[in-house]
Backbone:
């Protein structure tokens, strides 16, 4: 039995006209028979008469050097190549002398053709005698796409012995290993997984099983991109005599069965199939990580299969605790009033959910009644860990300007005394009512002082004046001034 399997559209018409065609990886090829019988097939060769032309069009499936050979005994033979861009190149036999072709096997035309583009070859001339023939053969070089080290390999996976000849069974076992340049791993291709399409990267795979079918060792040939590989298999002809072997028990993931072996050829079949058991999980352990101000926390449980010999496990998240990245005070500044003043605290996770009061505790600095800078520390607990410290101020009570009296190139400002929880005052004046430029500030270091004279100013110039209180306090061992808000400003024009 002979069988040749080819993928995609193939050169069936072309094979009828070409005498010897080495295996190529061409796409679908169209042969123009010209319906007027401008050339006539005879003995697998082209026969040309005077003025007749044969035309062959095809599209290469890979870029390579293609050669047209004319093996003839004729004179006046000509050929042309038409490229996809419309360029036509004419050729004559380079060894043509007089009426005889000296070297019948020499290349007549060689050209590099590109993948996916359609080319046209035309051959014409006249015969020296009626019925004489000219053989036209096309060949191609290897594409160079495969690595020299690996190239193309073909083998039958698992099964190499077949009882009787069944081409489909042989094909179903066929595997190709194709090594491409610059590839880190070879390409593995299985006929049985090819979906009925025998191609790799759009290029035909040709499987030639002609000559196969007799009992004994057989050889199939595989062609791809100009490369050839072989796969051998054995054909035996007999009826199987099966005997049962030891049963294989099912596992969590694999079915159980009883193997039967042929006593003649060692063929194996599986019967009495028992489905896989599936895993039987039981909780093995639990783990817990607290959420912090920068990372989520969670509770997890790990489960393990209890069946003998099975080591399968999986972990399940039971609860997620999101990071606490939103801790804020309700206020960061107060004005002294003689009473204890503390801001409230809000604590939320990254999803905007407020934590329960049991998830944290708040510590306030003592003495939160007097003017000063105070610390609030929030410490997370339970499902959360970490802390955050924040500060707020109790500032001194402010004062107000009583009057501003003009003086020669200056002025005198008087304000209301504010001695409680106050160290002193600051007087600020400016030519701008919004105090955004040209500001000058004078410090009064005694809280009992209620006036200040300022001189050496511009005459006949309008100034705006305001006052605030301050208190010097210790923060982390350093002197820091805490200020009240500014009083309402009053204006004055200096004298000449």
Residues:
């Amino acid at each position: 039995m002979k069988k040749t399997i080819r993928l995609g559209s193939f050169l069936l018409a072309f094979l009828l006209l070409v005498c010897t065609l080495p295996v190529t990886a061409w796409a679908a090829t169209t042969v123009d028979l010209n319906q007027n019988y401008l050339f006539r097939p005879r003995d697998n060769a082209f026969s040309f008469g005077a003025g007749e032309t044969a035309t062959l069009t095809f599209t290469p499936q890979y870029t390579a050097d293609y050669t047209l050979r004319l093996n003839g005994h004729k004179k006046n033979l000509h050929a042309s190549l038409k490229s996809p861009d419309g360029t036509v190149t004419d050729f004559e036999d380079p060894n043509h002398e007089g009426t005889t072709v000296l070297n019948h096997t020499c290349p007549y035309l060689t050209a590099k053709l590109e993948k996916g583009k359609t080319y046209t070859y035309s051959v014409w001339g006249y015969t020296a005698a009626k019925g004489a023939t000219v053989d036209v053969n096309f060949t191609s070089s290897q594409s160079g796409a495969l690595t020299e080290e690996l190239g193309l390999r073909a083998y039958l996976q698992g099964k190499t012995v077949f009882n009787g000849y069944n081409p489909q069974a042989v094909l179903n076992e066929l595997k190709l290993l194709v090594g491409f340049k610059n590839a880190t791993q070879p390409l593995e291709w299985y006929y049985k997984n090819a979906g009925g399409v025998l191609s790799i990267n759009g290029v035909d795979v040709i499987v030639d099983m002609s000559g196969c079918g007799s009992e004994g060792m057989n050889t199939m040939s595989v062609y791809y991109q100009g490369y050839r590989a072989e796969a051998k298999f054995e054909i035996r002809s007999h009826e199987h005599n099966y005997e049962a072997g030891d049963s294989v028990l099912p596992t969590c993931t694999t079915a159980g069965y009883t193997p039967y072996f042929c006593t003649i050829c060692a063929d194996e079949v599986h019967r009495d199939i028992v489905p896989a058991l599936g895993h039987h999980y039981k909780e093995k352990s639990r783990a817990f990580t607290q959420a912090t101000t920068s990372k989520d926390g969670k509770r997890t449980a790990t489960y393990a299969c209890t069946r003998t010999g099975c080591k399968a496990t999986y972990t399940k998240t039971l609860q997620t605790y999101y990071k606490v990245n939103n801790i804020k005070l309700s206020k960061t500044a107060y004005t002294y009033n003689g009473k204890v003043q503390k801001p409230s605290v809000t604590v939320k996770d990254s999803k905007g959910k407020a934590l329960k009061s049991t998830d944290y505790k708040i510590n306030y600095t003592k003495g939160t009644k007097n003017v000063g800078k105070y610390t609030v520390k929030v410490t997370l607990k339970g499902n959360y860990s970490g802390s955050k410290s924040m500060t707020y101020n109790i500032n001194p009570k402010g004062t107000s300007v009583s009057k501003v009296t003009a003086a020669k190139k200056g002025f005198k400002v008087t304000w209301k005394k504010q001695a409680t929880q106050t160290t002193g005052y600051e007087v600020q004046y400016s030519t701008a009512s919004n105090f955004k430029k040209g500001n000058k500030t004078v410090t009064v270091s005694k809280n009992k002082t209620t006036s200040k004279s300022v001189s050496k100013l511009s005459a006949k110039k309008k100034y705006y004046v305001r006052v605030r209180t301050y208190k010097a306090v210790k923060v982390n061992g350093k002197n820091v001034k805490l200020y009240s808000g500014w009083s309402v400003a009053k204006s004055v024009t200096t004298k000449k």
